[in-house]
């Protein structure tokens, strides 16, 4: 028996299979094709099984041909499956189920508290003029908060600062500790530990035993400033604070100094800027006066300098103290200081 008819029918099988495969449009039809030709009872499998009934030399020739067909069909199958998979992905993208042009979902971002922002802005203005930033303790000694600032025990000026006292009594029956009522005690701490020249700003929290209202909090921030050197004058103070006002409130600002009293400065002053909202015409923010008071300042009292061991015939200096929340309120038109401590995200989210 010759093998030619068997080989020819294998060739026909191969041609038919490839033709059917190329006409299979889906994953389902390709799978049906696989079962029909290469499955356990598929056409080609049956041919291979039938080899056993052939004579040995026929078996070799037909077996080799059948294996070549099998390899070719398997290879074609893999290629067809691959093509269908990529066509499916393509169709999915076409349908727009995967729109890579959609805008992303916003990720909520935290931000700095408005007090932190204004404190940093104030400090940066003074740093640009050569000042250093220093911080100090909120629990303070009477000695630093009052006495060495020229406010002795029974001085009536103590009434300017309603004080939270720490409940601890010394051997004289006095309470020596308190929550600092201002940042001025840092003037003493800094001068005690350094020699002139001194140029520092001190941001920090302060406390007053007061009822709260729209313009008063029992807890608030201050920024203190101090410059001491050989030959510092009142004009240096005016120039420095004028530059500060321009940096924070704009280059057209004018400033005004008027006498004021603080025991640790002589002469003492309050500094105002012309109202940035109405340009000095008079409005709600400046309460019709055209001027807004922004800080207390003055030449460091010689008694304070002597108290820390500075020679007051050689050294002079100026000091100032301001309330950052008040500055932020003016800048942003905020009408209640209590908002800074209420943690209301609708308020905080605006800055
Ligand atoms: N410490 C003062 C207060 O809290 C503010 C102040 C005024 C500070 C004049 C100063 C200054 O350094 O020179 O009311």
Describe this structure as you would to a colleague:
With 351 residues, the protein is of the alpha+beta class. It has helices spanning 4-22, 27-38, 43-50, 56-94, 114-127, 142-145, 185-193, 234-249, 302-307, 324-332, 345-348; strands at 132-133, 139-141, 177-179, 198-207, 219-230, 255-260, 265-274, 291-300, 315-322. It has two domains: 3-95; 114-348, Bira Bifunctional Protein, Domain 2 (BirA Bifunctional Protein, domain 2), CATH 3.30.930. The strands form two sheets. A seven-stranded mixed β-sheet has the order 1-4-5-9-8-7-6, with helices on both faces. The structure holds 3,4-dihydroxyphenylalanine (DAH). 3,4-dihydroxyphenylalanine binds at residues 182, 184, 224, 262, 265, 296-298, 319-321.
């Amino acid at each position: 028996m010759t093998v030619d008819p068997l080989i020819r029918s294998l060739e026909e099988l191969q041609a038919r299979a490839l033709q059917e495969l190329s006409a299979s449009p889906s994953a389902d039809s390709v799978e049906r094709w696989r079962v029909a030709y290469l499955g356990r009872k598929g056409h080609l499998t049956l041919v291979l099984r039938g080899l056993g009934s052939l004579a040995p030399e026929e078996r070799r020739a037909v077996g080799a041909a059948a294996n070549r067909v099998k390899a070719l069909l398997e290879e074609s199958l893999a290629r067809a499956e691959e093509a269908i998979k990529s066509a499916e992905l393509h169709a999915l993208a076409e349908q727009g189920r995967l729109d890579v042009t959609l805008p992303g979902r916003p990720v909520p971002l935290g931000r700095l508290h408005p007090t932190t922002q204004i404190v940093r802005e104030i400090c940066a203005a003074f740093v640009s003029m050569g000042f250093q930033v220093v911080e100090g303790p909120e629990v303070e000694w009477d000695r630093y908060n009052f006495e060495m600032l020229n406010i002795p025990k029974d001085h009536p000026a103590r009434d300017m600062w309603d004080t939270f006292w720490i409940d601890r009594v010394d051997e004289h029956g006095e309470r020596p500790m308190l929550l600092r009522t201002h940042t001025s005690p840092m003037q003493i701490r800094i001068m005690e530990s350094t020699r002139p020249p001194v140029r520092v700003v001190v941001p920090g929290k302060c406390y007053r035993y007061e009822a709260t209202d729209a313009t008063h909090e029992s807890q608030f921030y201050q920024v203190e400033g101090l410059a001491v050197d050989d030959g510092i004058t009142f004009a240096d103070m005016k120039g420095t604070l004028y530059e500060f006002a321009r940096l924070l409130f704009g280059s057209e600002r004018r400033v005004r100094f008027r006498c004021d009293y603080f025991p640790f400065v002589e002469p003492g002053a309050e500094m105002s800027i012309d109202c940035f909202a109405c340009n000095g015409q008079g409005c709600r923010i400046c309460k019709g006066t055209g001027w807004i008071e922004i800080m207390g300042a003055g030449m460091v009292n010689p008694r304070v300098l002597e108290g820390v061991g500075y020679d007051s015939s050689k050294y002079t200096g100026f000091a100032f103290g301001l309330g950052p929340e008040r500055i932020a309120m003016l800048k942003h038109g905020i009408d209640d200081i209590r908002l800074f401590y209420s943690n209301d995200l609708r308020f905080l989210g605006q800055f």
